[in-house]
Amino acid sequence: MPSKTSRSSRPAFRCADCGHEVAKWVGRCPGCQAWGTIEEAAPARPALAKVSAGAPSTPARPIAEVDLDSARSVSTGIGELDRVLGGGIVPGAVVLLAGEPGVGKSTLLLEVAHRWASGASPGASLYVTGEESAGQVRLRAERTDSVHPELFLGAESDLSSVLGHVDAVKPGLLIVDSVQTVQSPDAEGSPGGVTQVRAVTTALVALAKERGLPVVLVGHVTKDGAVAGPRVLEHLVDVVLQFEGDRHSSLRMLRGVKNRFGPSDEVGCFEQRDDGIAEVPDPSGLFINRQEAAVDGTAVTVMVEGKRPLLVEIQALLMKTEMAMPRRSVSGLDSARVSMMLAVLGKHGHIPTGSHDVFAATVGGTKIGEPAADLAIAMAVASSQTGRPLPPNLVVIGEVGLAGEIRRVNGVGRRLAEAARLGFDRALVPPDPGPVPKGIKVTEVATIKDALKLVRRRKQASG
Q: Do 100 and 242 belong together in one domain?
């Protein structure tokens, strides 16, 4: 029988995400149900009875005497990216940019490196690629007009070589594409593994803090859109950005998931083009389709992404069906909320949809998840079912409860101001919307029945 000492010295296996320990290696963690996160861990060392004090690296100072100049953000040259970062990138900050393959992460960061090299930012920019050859990146730089003498390019997958490039170039900005392809000689495992990703990220974070060098890391994502690798990766870095986009749409959204230097709910808008990625300072025009004649089944709402209000057009189409189970097809909207609106319309608005196929979508490929679009969804469905279009230049804002009541949403004033700026002069809003900007007339509705009166008063548009 093995002794107690041999059992305590036996190596354990621990989950890199939740820390759950198991006696032997398994493919799936029993604690958090994550795959591929179990790794061998050395046995815990006995706790010391006393820890001796050591000399601090820098003396502690009153917080009012700490220099702020070293923490001032520096513009990247791309306004939409600066918006998400909180004004620019801070020296010594480590930014993790994650996104699906082909969304344009490398193209965006190559443009960032070019703007940094050609601008007034301190130092050159170093772009290290571990996924492509230097010639492939040069071809992309030629296509996007991103070639500059102060933009240095290195094709390396070894961490020691990357640090050697930093010592040789002494850049003001380091971009590593991607962190899953770089391997540390001091860590075990293959590139992209939990141990390797943690070791590489830890070394680059230490490099950034020691030299005040801003570092941007490209990260892969899993099938469900989460950042690949251990969860500790997101804790090590200072900023986590998510680059999103539909393959069938040119729109790209940059979302701030974590930001130690600014707001974490800001959004930047970009457009994928043949010659690269261009920022879109005013993206509302991409999500609405202004027509001279009113069309039934459409409603315009104002969503808020971060602090930015965006006008979005919602379309609905109802078709009579003989099938026992009508179709419910949704694109860009929450299917659960669309089903709720259909139930509320049938119960409180006397709008039957049980014998109709229902198709609901947003224009421009954007996604709406906030409840403020409930009333617009309901009005679009009712307009399509009755064949009566909503009044022109009307925006619809409000959350709809299961009892048919219209609830208030946040930021109504900002939403109405954006609608008035784009030429809308009428709005359907919940009660007590607060201060209303000039140039727009609001109609307050307390229930879904009050809102549907607007549709029923409209005569069917003549052909």
A: yes
Tokens representing residue 186 in the block: 């001091």
Same domain, 403 and 437: yes
Could you list the beta-strand ranges (E) of 49-162. Answer: 94-99, 125-129, 151-155
Q: Angle at CA 426, nearest 5°, toward 420 and 432?
A: 95
Task: Check the annotation: does 125 bind a ligand.
Answer: no
Backbone angles phi, psi at 364, to 5 degrees: 90, 0
418 belongs to an annotated ligand binding site: no
103 labelled as ligand-binding? Answer: yes
Q: What is the pLDDT along the chain (463 residues), one digit of tens a residue?
A: 444 444 445 557 888 777 788 888 888 888 888 888 787 775 555 555 677 787 887 788 898 888 777 778 999 989 999 999 999 999 999 999 999 888 999 999 999 999 999 986 678 999 999 989 999 999 999 999 999 999 999 999 999 999 999 999 999 999 999 899 999 988 888 888 888 888 999 999 999 999 999 999 999 887 666 776 667 788 899 999 999 887 777 888 899 999 999 888 888 989 888 888 999 887 877 777 766 667 899 999 999 987 889 999 999 999 999 888 999 999 999 999 999 999 999 999 999 898 999 999 998 778 898 999 999 999 999 999 999 999 889 999 999 999 999 999 999 999 999 999 988 999 999 999 888 998 899 999 999 999 998 887 754 443 4
254 and 223 in a single domain? The answer is yes
| Overall number of domains in the chain | 3
**Is 313 assigned a ligand-binding role in the annotation?**
no
Q: Is 354 labeled as ligand-binding?
A: no
Query: What predicted TM-score, i.e. pTM, was given to this entire model?
Result: 0.78
Residue in the structure block whose two tokens are 């804790």:
235
φ and ψ of 19, to 5 deg = 85, 10
Task: Residue 154: give the domain boundaries.
Answer: 74-281
